[in-house]
Amino acid sequence: MNDFEQLSNIKNSQKISVNKPKGELQHILSELESEHKLRHVFGQIQLNFDPLAFRSEAINFPGLIESLSEKYQLEFKAPAIIEMAKRQTGQVDKQLYHQAFESREGLDFRHGLVSYEQKGDNQQIVLRRVNVHGQNITVALDGTTDEAEVVAQKIAADMLENQGLHSSWSNFRKRIGGIGYLSTSMLDLGFNPMRLLSDEMNSFISEDIENDLGFKMADKPLDGPTRCQEDFIYKCVLDELKFKVSVFDKNSGSQDYFEFRFDTSDRRSRGSGVVAVTSQLKFEDHMHALHSLIRRFVKPLTSGQAATQDCAPAS
User: Taking a C-beta distance cutoff of 8 angstroms, is the pair 237, 269 a contact?
Assistant: First the structure.
């Protein structure tokens, strides 16, 4: 398939097809899904490109909005500048669309749907957000960054076609200066998340917070019956643990910050080991990170240990 055929296929197919995981990644996914109940919650990708990659002055904005809304069942969120013009005059000048496209807000779409095909099954993925801007395209969905990347390619192809550009996908890729990822997965770590903290911190929590300090945090009336420490139950669990990763480019002098975060926002899961892990990594790297983390806390069974467990009498 040549470049033009590849672009046409991306543009015209309303289904996305993602390559099946292979090799080590396939093994990691199988292990995390079977032993740790892995679930892919959220994937986002942002393609940052040279603004000259598009003929932005040639974009048919009403046509683009209608096309994306129909193809992906997206809801267009009109920027404030567009809404104001509609209220005042009932019409929107093309130049206002161009200004919105070049502004920080961009053109934003929400609540879409796209078909997904893998292993012979047809599924549907919810598109949480699609944003097109003069210098980037952002796609966020309920799934992985691999799926988001294919949708982003399709959106880029739609925009190229809208401007009368029929350049190949490989040519457009040369204009992409950087790609940003965001991945969130739910899984059971297999251990209490408090183990992510040091022994000293856990000692402080058990001896101080869950003892004297917990009682001092509790609401107690100024007047009325005296409340004592035995009237309360104290339990400290991990809610959120966030790391900021600083990356300094020695050549350009630029510095960026990236997140690696643990959340247990669902109260029913707190303390159970079930967490949401978010990183600014693409799908494959995110999976390797989760696998590496768990291996540091949960040691794999040796063949002898596994055999002993299999033969152990039921309690």
Answer: no
Distance CA 33, CA 40 (A): 10
Distance CA(1)–CA(14), nearest Å, equals 19
Encode pLDDT of 250-270 as tens digits: 998 989 999 999 998 677 777
Q: Is residue 54 a contact partner of residue 163, using CB atoms and an 8 Å limit?
A: yes
Give pLDDT tens digits for 12-54: 555 566 778 889 999 999 999 999 999 999 999 999 998 888 7
Mean pLDDT in residue range 113-119: 73
Phi, psi of 89 (to 5 degrees): -120, -15
Secondary structure element (H or E) that encloses residue 160, with its range: helix 145-162
Cβ of 155: how many Cβ atoms within 10 Å? Answer: 25
Q: Name, in order, each residue with C-beta under 8 angstroms of 270's C-beta and a sequence gap of 6 or more.
A: 237, 238, 239, 264
Amino acid at 188: D
| Strand ranges in 253-299 using DSSP code E only, listed in sequence order | 255-263, 274-279
Q: Token digits for 264?
A: 């247990």
